[in-house]
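Sequence only, no structure available. Ideas?
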Amino acid sequence: MSKPKVDLSFDYNKYNFRDEVIYSIKFPKGLSEEIVREISRIKNEPSWMEEIRVKAYKHFIERPLPTWGADLSKIDFNEFHYFARPTDKKGRSWEEVPEYIKRTFELLGIPEAERKFLAGVGAQYESEVVYHNIRKELESKGVIFVDTDTAVREYPEIVKKYFGTVVPYNDNKFAALNTAVWSGGSFIYVPEGVKVDLPLQAYFRINAQNIGQFERTLIIAEPYSEVHYIEGCTAPIYATDSLHSAVVEIIAKKGAKVRYTTIQNWSIDVYNLVTKRAHAYEEATVEWVDANIGSKVTMKYPSIYLLGKHARGEILSVAFAGKGQHQDTGGKIFHLAPYTSSRITSKSVSKDGGRTTYRGLLHVAKGAKGVKATVRCDALLIDEKSKTDTYPYVEILEDDATVTHEATVGKISEDQLFYLMSRGIPENEALNMIVLGFFEPFIKELPMEYAVEMNRLLRLEMTGAVG
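Reply:
I predicted one. Tokens follow.
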């Protein structure tokens, strides 16, 4: 049997459009302390936030680029615009949003998704959120879902209490950059005992060339509350690079449950350098469901600190790397309390010389008795040119712990293809079944509409792949 050719590069036509925009504010390229202070002034922030920004900026300047992950040597921080405001208005109704931005998000299906199955939606375009809405019944229960800029103004005591407590400004170079120039993102507060039955969603769109997008998301789930947050990201393709450097902080208090789902489909000229971390207290559950499909380079390792007895953490990570892409992803879980449990599952596909890297850490602290933890990494290579690496770090400082680790690397099996085709299944459909089966642990965790979209994209790109 001739070896099948598989094209898994995602169809970007749905996302690769751009708007001609006259911005109300757009800073020149480059970064300085003056620009950092100007961002704070434009947003009319309290002095404590401006001080945090300046302190973070100074740390960013002093701290070298990391050299242990993907190649970041070609990033020129003076080539990015660090703030762009497309409009001075932010809509609470869809009719209030400027027409060209409305058209962008309609093309991406955001209003339709809101009407169908979402409890609340935020839409960020360049540096700022342009639309935000939440269902009235959730507001009446005390749920807060606003952009983070609004939260600083309207709920300063909550933001000041938690901002930077999970990801401090000096955690890493890109956390420092985000803290200095952050703009937009989502702020979610769920009161004790309140369960948000439908997902909340935010969508992040880069439109202009050489833009940096630096949203900041903060989620606080009070005891025994529940919430599911979904974010999606896209950008058009340009000849030069853009930068996305976000920070996400989650606080899940006793018995709370938080799920955070990301479907990242940035264009292949975006550096995607993100810090995501959660604190889970006694009996709390935190789940990261993370798909990395686009970007030139991604470095992202969602982390969970299990801080209370019987806390639970799960990270489910999917990465696809095509030509010119390096997805350096994974997850970190720290067992810092007894009887905590965790699971990390990583799935990756590489083709056309693309590279995927799993980089993970599982830490069991001394005294954290009765821990149960599982790590599984599976990689699928489509051709001889592609590459995958696995760097699993396991640190166990407590004897009373049960930890397992599995890793597999494979190719599409000709035996599998032959078996399916011998049952009358066409070769293209057989390839679809194998690849979709590989991704099944991720897809089954998505809300139905997202699962359908992921399946549709995969099937679309498998069509005509056999030569």
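The CA atoms of residues 63 and 88 lie 34 Å apart.
Hope that gets you unstuck.
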